[in-house]
Amino acid sequence: MPHCVCQTPAAVLCFVHLLLLNNMLSNIELLRYSCQIALPGFGEAAQQRLKDARVLVVGAGGLGCPAAQYLAAAGVGRVAIADFDTVSAGNLHRQVLYTPNDVGKYKANVAAERLSQQNPHIVVEAVLEKISVENALALFGQHDLILDCTDNFDARYLINDAAVLSGRTVVYGAIYQYEGQVAVWNVLNADGSRSPNYRDLFPEVDAAQIPNCAEGGVIPALAGIIGCIQANEAIKYLAGVGELLVGRLLVFDAATMQSRSFKIGNISRTDITTLPTAEMVQTVTVEEWSKMAADFYCVIDVRNADERAAFDFGGLHIPLAELEKRWLEIPSKKPVLFYCASGKRSAEAVKKWQKYHPETPAFSLEGGVKTMLQNI
Amino acid sequence: MRIKILAFGIARDICGSGVIHLEVSENVTAGQVKQLLTEGYPQLGQLKSFLLAVNEECAEPDTLITPGDEIAVIPPVSGG
User: Fold this and answer.
1) Is the CB of B56 less than 8 angstroms away from the CB of A207?
2) Quick one: A150 and A195 in the same domain?
3) What is the ipTM score, two decimals?
4) A-B C-beta contacts closer than 8 Å
5) pTM of the model
6) Domain extent for A365
7) Is A214 found in the same domain as A356?
8) For residues A74 and A121, is the Cβ–Cβ distance under 8 A?
9) CA distance A93 to A99
10) How many domains, in total, are found in chain B?
C-alpha cells in the first residue's frame, strides 16, 4: 500500500501552518463551536466571520466582564479589553471575572488572562489605557466593532463621537439600580446613511445630576443581563444573524421584568465633526493631601446624605446635585478640594466650580474615599 | 384629558413614582408635555436631555397625544 503523502509529518505541519495563516477554523475549534454552528442561518461561514473579527470592549467592569466573557467563549478572534482601573472589593458583587485575590490588580490584565484560558484559540489583549481624545480614533481604527461598557458620560460621548468619526458601530449598554439600556449605534444602512447614535437620543447631559452604580446602587445580575445582551448583539452583528437593536433603545426593568423597545429612527440626524473637548480637572492624591497644612484647602464632601452619615473625612457636606444652589456656602478665598466615593462626582464638582469661579483653583481627590480607605 | 406617564431611571426618583398622571388639554403635543414635565419637575430639565416616547416611539415635538397613548420618560443612564 503506497504511503499517503498527506500523512507525512512535513505535510501535516504545512497544513497547520496554512490554517494559521488563513485564520481557518481547526477541527478542535469546529468542535468547540459546534452548538452555535448548528444554529439555523449560522454555519461555519458565520463562525469564520467571528474568528476574523476584532472587537474592542471599553470597560472591564460590570458590563465588560460578562460581555467580554461571551465574546471570547464564542470565538471572536481578537478581543481587546480597555480599562485603566484596578479591582476593588466593592466591584466583586457584579464584576464576576475577579476574585478577592485580584483586588489591586489591573482589571484588563486579569480579564485578559482569564479569558485567554477559557478560549486559547483567540487573542485576548489588555489595553491599559483610558480612552481619550488622543487615542480613541487610532484604537477604533484597529477594530471592527466597539462595545461601550463604561460607567461615565464623558467616556460614552467620546466613544460615540469617535465611532461616528471613524465609521464604527457601537454596542451600547448602561445600568442604574434595577434598569438597563441597550442599543446598537451607527450601523451602516443599505443606502449609505448611518443609523442613529447616542447623541440622537441624548444630545448632551449634566452628569452631576445622574448617579452611577456606587451612588445609586445596582442589582448585580442586571450587569450580567445587560452585558450578555451586548455580547448577543455583537455576535449577531458579526455573524450576520438575527435582528439588531438598530435605531431602537431597549429598556429593561429587572425589578418588574418588563422590557420595552423604543424606536428612535432609521437615520441619524446628528452632525458630529469633532471629538468632545476634554475638560481638564486637576486632581490631588491622598498622599499629596496628607502633606498639606490642615487648613490649606476648603474641603467639600459631595457625597449623598447616607454616605456622609456612614463616615466622612471632614469638610463641608454639599451633595453634588445641590452644589449650584449652595455656592454661597463655600468661601472662595482658599483653593477648594472636592471629594466623593471614587473621584467621579468630585471631578464633576470641579468642572462646575471652574465655570462659576474660574479665579479660585479647585481640585478633585483622586480615587476618592475608596482610595483613602485602602491607605488606612 | 388625563394622561399617564411612565418614568424610568432617575426620572422615577425625580417624579417620585414610576407612574405619574397629568391633566392636559385635548390637543396637547409631545413637546408641550415635555414642557409641562420640566415645569412640574425642574430636575428633569436639569438633566439636559431625556427621551419622551409615545407608544414606544421617540416623539417629535409636534406629535399629538391622544387618550390611551402610553407615554414614557427615559433619562440618560451611565452605570456599568
Assistant:
1) no
2) yes
3) 0.96
4) 98
5) 0.88
6) 283-374
7) no
8) no
9) 10
10) 1
